[in-house]
Amino acid sequence: MGPMVTAPLLAAASSDAERHGVFTLEGFPYWIVYVAAFGIVMVRAQATYWLGRGVARGMGGTRVAHVLASPRATQVIDRIHRWGPPAVTFSFFTVGVQTVVNLAAGYLRMPFGRYLVALTFGCLVWAAIWTTVGTAVVWGAVLLFLHHPAVLAALVVLALGLTAWLLHRRRTRTDAAQPTPEEV
């Protein structure tokens, strides 16, 4: 990007950040953004829970039923049996696990009252995390892109490489821990 393009973008980003603050969205105050995020995650998580209930009720041949039969989903289901509602709440501290946990909670027919209490606490936490830290990370990435796009690209490549390495390492350890057919 040349100086003719970046200068107006930098000025716009700086004036927006000064005018609206980090924890706002297009001038809306923080509490409105928080309530909207809470509502979105509450609807999404409950839809996933009820989808799990539907699968348990007789949609056994669906793609969702196959996902729930996967090894990762089976581990999550075992945790829900063991930990119940706290597993639902704490799933909102993670990325990517909450959908499987909510689906499994519905599939296992966790009583809705207990689920709703756990879900509410989880959604409150999720909305707080994403409307503070999440918003700050997005604004930081935008500003880093505007000032130093190569640095942002390098950080993304580094994060992807680290994730791939960790997944490979985990898969290698899992494969090494399983007995060979001769050992069985």
Secondary-structure-derived class: mainly alpha
Q: What spatial form do the alpha-carbon principal axes imply?
A: flat
Low-confidence stretches: none
Number of helices: 8
Tell me, rounded to a whole number, the average pLDDT: 81
How large is the share of residues in beta strands?
A: under 5%
Please write the string of helix (H) and strand (E) elements.
HHHHHHHH
| Largest sheet entry | none
User: Tally of extended strands?
Assistant: 0
Termini distance? 60 Å
Rg value: 21 Å
> What's the helical proportion of residues?
over 70%
Family: Belongs to the DedA family.
Transmembrane segments: 27-51, 115-139, 145-167
Pfam families: VTT_dom
Membrane topology: Multi-pass membrane protein
Describe this structure in words.
The protein is mainly α. It has a domain at 22-138. The chain is built from eight helices and no strands. It has helices at residues 3-20, 30-58, 63-68, 71-83, 85-91, 98-107, 112-147, 149-177. α1 crosses α7, α2 crosses α6 (98-107) and α5 (85-91) runs parallel beside α7. It starts with a helix and ends in a 7-residue tail after the last helix. The model has no long low-confidence stretch (mean pLDDT 81).
